Design the sequence.
């Protein structure tokens, strides 16, 4: 059982004004794949390096498989790591690169050969075992690095942006292979990336980091469709979530409502105590309905930009000075300055306090750190 627990980790690099990680706690279950996602400088790599033993926290605790490893050197942690730069040995053949960790551990020859053959098959490296890294493509070299990491039966697999040196097509195919591979070996995995599609596709759960803190920790579909705060909604999604400023009204009877121009939307009943407060209504561009004809209480706006995206079109609409992005099927047509009508389905709206920018609704899907 290799569960991982990060408890209240603080780390400030010498001379830095702000901490790289601030009170980060994260419980990772045995066999779970957790992705650390966030913008540059948010502390992802620092967290991973503390887990690997390459950096020491100023305070806090790291427990792996029930063992406190906080101050143990990397070699005493039984973790393996894959880096962004392939970090393979240029003067060793592929088979010797893969076997490296086993050789260091003085594993017997037959067992080493068996493991190398197993990893080479999983990573489709069998034809290249007798080549040197210089005779491989970037994708193949990264496969060697992954093979080397999995043969040693590490308790935890750590990966730091392993796909980011690959071109976009290769990244997509390797991503799918990596997902299958990690599922099949079942090793607890912590994976760092700033690429949201990679995070959503790979993770059992995604920890979105901001300024050294976890802004939300939840399964991928939940971080996407129920962001715990404005930062997460604005970081995930391409384009990101729209946020419409309005005020929560008491409504009639037990209801709370908010006005979006001509459309009045009903708020969840639980929000009624917040009436009178300024709120932000979050809605994903693909959830906004856009039409060139007026429908019901749709809100009128003017097209600012019309962008064909291939499988869909993106329409930027000015509604009383607020710019709203709507993603429509690629059969939709409009041009700059056209009048269009927008509808915001109530079930797709997420409610945020305008001041704290935190979600007003709570529930299991809104699990935060
Ligand atoms: P990126 O995606 O750009 O790699 P990250 O989220 O992995 O970023 P970290 O590398 O963990 O971020 O860095 C977090 C903060 O700590 C940043 O402000 C960075 O400048 C700082 N930092 C990182 N390493 C060092 C170091 N060795 N010395 C001083 N400051 C550092």
Sequence:
């Amino acid at each position: 059982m290799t569960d991982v627990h990060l408890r209240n980790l603080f780390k400030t690099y010498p001379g830095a004004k702000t901490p790289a990680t601030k009170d980060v706690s994260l419980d990772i279950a045995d066999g779970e794949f957790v992705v650390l996602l966030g913008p540059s400088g948010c502390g992802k790599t620092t967290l991973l390096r503390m887990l690997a033993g390459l950096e020491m926290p100023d305070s806090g605790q790291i427990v792996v498989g029930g063992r406190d490893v906080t101050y143990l050197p990397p070699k005493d942690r039984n973790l393996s790591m894959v880096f962004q730069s392939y970090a393979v040995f240029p003067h060793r053949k592929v088979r010797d690169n893969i076997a490296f960790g086993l050789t260091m551990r003085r594993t017997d020859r037959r067992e080493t050969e068996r493991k190398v053959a197993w990893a080479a098959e999983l990573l489709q490296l069998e034809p290249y075992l007798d080549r040197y890294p210089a005779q491989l493509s970037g994708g193949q070299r990264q496969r060697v690095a992954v093979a080397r990491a999995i043969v040693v039966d590490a308790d935890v697999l750590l990966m730091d942006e392993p796909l980011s040196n690959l071109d976009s097509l290769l990244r997509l195919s390797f991503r799918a292979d990596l997902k299958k591979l990690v599922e099949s070996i079942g090793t607890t995995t912590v994976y760092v990336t700033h690429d949201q599609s990679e995070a959503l596709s790979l993770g059992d759960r995604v920890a979105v980091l901001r300024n050294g803190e976890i802004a939300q920790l939840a399964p991928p579909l939940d971080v996407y469709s129920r962001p715990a705060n404005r930062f997460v909604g604005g970081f995930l999604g391409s384009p990101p979530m729209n946020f419409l400023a309005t005020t929560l009204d008491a409504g009639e009877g037990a209801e709370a409502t908010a006005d979006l121009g001509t459309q009045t939307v009903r708020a969840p009943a639980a929000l009624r105590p917040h009436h009178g407060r300024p709120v932000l209504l979050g809605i994903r561009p693909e959830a906004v309905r856009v039409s060139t004809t007026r429908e019901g209480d749709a809100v009128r706006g003017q097209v600012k930009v019309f962008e064909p995206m291939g499988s869909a079109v993106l329409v930027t609409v000015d509604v009383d000075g607020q710019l709203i992005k709507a993603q429509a099927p690629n059969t939709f047509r409009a041009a700059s300055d056209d009048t269009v009508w927008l509808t915001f389905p109530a079930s797709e709206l997420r409610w945020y306090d305008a001041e704290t920018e935190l979600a007003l609704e709570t529930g299991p899907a809104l699990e935060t750190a």
Summary: The longest strand covers residues 299-308. The chain has eight helices and 20 strands. Confidence is low (pLDDT under 50) at residues 363-369. The pocket of adenosine-5'-triphosphate is lined by residues 13, 16, 20, 38, 40-46, 194 (CB under 6 Å).
